[in-house]
Design brief:
15 helices; TIM Barrel; 338 residues; globular; 9 strands; two-stranded antiparallel ribbon; 7-stranded parallel sheet; alpha/beta
Length: 338
C-alpha cells in the first residue's frame, strides 16, 4: 500500500494559524450524532478532526447556546471541528457562520451537495449547483464574515449532468475556498452506481487548479483509496458511509500512506469498538439502546447474526455485556461475514 501519497498526511492549512491535522477526514455523517460514537472514536484516535453534519438555516440566526448544544458531540472531543451549514439566504448564512465562529471551530463548510428530495425541493443543498454564481457569492460572504476561519464547500459533480462541472468549479475556484469536498455523483444520481466516477474526479482535479480537492463517494476500503489516488491524484479523501461500515477506515488509510499494514482481524476490532460505544452510552443519561443499534446495523449489517443478538437485548446494559462476551471469544467474533 506504499503507493498511497504521504502528502495526504500533511496538515491542511487554514486562515488564522489554524489547520486540519491531515487530508484524510471524516465526511459529514447526518444522523450519527450519538455522543458515544464521537467520544469513543476520538479516544481511540480513529479520527483526527470532525466535519459536523449540516445545520439548516431557514429563518433567524440560531442562539449560541443552541449551536453549542447541537455541536457538543463534536466540540467536546477536543478535536478540530469544521461545521457544515446549509440554506439559501446568503446574509443569514454569513451571520450564522460568524456566530458559530465564537465556539472556537476551525472552519465553516457550505453544503451545496445534499441530494435529499426535501432539501432540493426547498432550493437548498444540491439544488444550488444550478446557481454557480450564488455559490461564489455565498463563499465570499462567509469568508468576509469569518476571515480567520477555514472556508470550504461540499459539492457533487452536477445537478443532472457532470457536464455542469466546468461552470460550477470555475465559480468555486474564483471564490478561493481553502478546500473543496467533491462527491462524484450528480444530485439526480443520488447513491446509484456510477461506472465513471473516478474519471469525473480526475476531470474535477484539472478544473480546480491549485485548490485542494478532497474526494468523496464509494470509499469503503484502503484499496478504494489506492485506486482513487492512482486514477485521480486528488489531494485527500473524505469517506462518509465507508466510515460507518468500518470506523477504522481513516486510520487504515493513514497507515497505508505510511507504508504500514492495516489491522488483519477487522471484525474483532469492530466488535471491540461496538462494545466500547455501548458501554459509554450505558453511562450517558441521554443515550438509549436504539442509538447503538442504529450504528451496529450500519457497521455489521442487519442480516449479521451478532446484530440479531443485539436486537434481542432489552437495554444497553445487556448489549454491553453481550459485546464484552463476544469480544472475549474469538469463535463468537468470527461468527458472521467478514
Amino acid at each position: 500500500m506504499s503507493d498511497l501519497p504521504k502528502t495526504w498526511l500533511t496538515p491542511l492549512p487554514l486562515p488564522g494559524g489554524k489547520s486540519l491535522p491531515n487530508r484524510i477526514v471524516p465526511g459529514p455523517m447526518e444522523g450519527i450524532t450519538l455522543g458515544s460514537f464521537c467520544r469513543v472514536l476520538a479516544k481511540q484516535e480513529l479520527v483526527r478532526c470532525w466535519i459536523a453534519p449540516f445545520i439548516r438555516l431557514t429563518t433567524g440566526v440560531p442562539r449560541l447556546s443552541r449551536l453549542a448544544h447541537r455541536l457538543s458531540p463534536y466540540l467536546d472531543t477536543g478535536l478540530p471541528v469544521v461545521v457544515q451549514i446549509m440554506g439559501i439566504d446568503i446574509d443569514l448564512l454569513a451571520a450564522s457562520a460568524q456566530r458559530i465562529a465564537k465556539l472556537g471551530v476551525e472552519g465553516i463548510d457550505l453544503n451545496c451537495g445534499c441530494p435529499s428530495n426535501v432539501v432540493v425541493g426547498n432550493g437548498a443543498g444540491g439544488a444550488l449547483l444550478r446557481r454557480p454564481t450564488w455559490i461564489h457569492d455565498a463563499l465570499c460572504a462567509i469568508r468576509a464574515a469569518c476571515p480567520d476561519l477555514g472556508i470550504s464547500v461540499k459539492l457533487r459533480t452536477g445537478f443532472s449532468s457532470p457536464d455542469e462541472m466546468p461552470e460550477i468549479l470555475a465559480a468555486v475556484r474564483s471564490a478561493a475556498p481553502d478546500f473543496t469536498i467533491l462527491h462524484f455523483r450528480t444530485v439526480d444520481e443520488q447513491y446509484r452506481p456510477v461506472p465513471n466516477g473516478w474519471e469525473r474526479l480526475a476531470k474535477a482535479k484539472e478544473l480546480v487548479g491549485g485548490l485542494p480537492l478532497l474526494a468523496s463517494g464509494d470509499l469503503f476500503t484502503v484499496d478504494d483509496a489506492l485506486q482513487l489516488w492512482r486514477e485521480c491524484r486528488v489531494d485527500g479523501v473524505a469517506p462518509a458511509r465507508g466510515l460507518l461500515r468500518n470506523p477504522h477506515l481513516l486510520r487504515d488509510i493513514e497507515r497505508a500512506c505510511q507504508g504500514e499494514s492495516t489491522v488483519a482481524d477487522r471484525r474483532t476490532a469492530m466488535l471491540s469498538l461496538l462494545g466500547d460505544i455501548a458501554a459509554d452510552a450505558d453511562r450517558s443519561p441521554d443515550s438509549h439502546h436504539g442509538l447503538v443499534l442504529d450504528f451496529a446495523s450500519r457497521a455489521l449489517g442487519k442480516d449479521d447474526p451478532i446484530f440479531r443478538q443485539l436486537i434481542a437485548c432489552r437495554n444497553l446494559g445487556e448489549a454491553t455485556a453481550l459485546l464484552a462476551k463476544l469480544g472475549a471469544s474469538p469463535d463468537c467474533a468470527s461468527d458472521g461475514p467478514n
